[in-house]
Amino acid sequence: MLRAVQLGLRGEAMDSSTIWMCLFCAACMARCPAGIDIPKVLETVRHISMREGRPPASKEVALFQRLFLGQVAGMGRVHELSLGGSYNLRSGHLMSNVGLVPRMLTRRKLSLLPHRKGARWFKKLLSRERKARD
Length: 134
What we know:
- By secondary structure, the protein is mainly α.
- Helix content is 62%, strand content 0%.
- It contains 9 helices and no strands.
- The chain is globular and about 50 Å long.
- The two termini are 29 Å apart.
């Protein structure tokens, strides 16, 4: 994918599943001997791809992205339990990972209720971003 960007192969770069599967953990950037900000490159290609109306590499990735960004826009953060539940319902994977939920709740890896901290700040940031794009 990075070679496609280097060579100016726009279509190949934007059609790559890599731009949709990357978690932006920055492990690749930490290991890159050239010091390239790989997550930033992938994010930029993803945004250009979305702006041009190109569909993501898979319908499930597109669904997850839409649900994830909708939660961030609405609450300022993600509530993993409701994100997982709505993804399972809308993707048709109704029982996927349901067996893990009780253990994750007891270990406090998931919370029953979403946190609202930061929602106002993030909504202002999004509205400024939208105004700048328009």
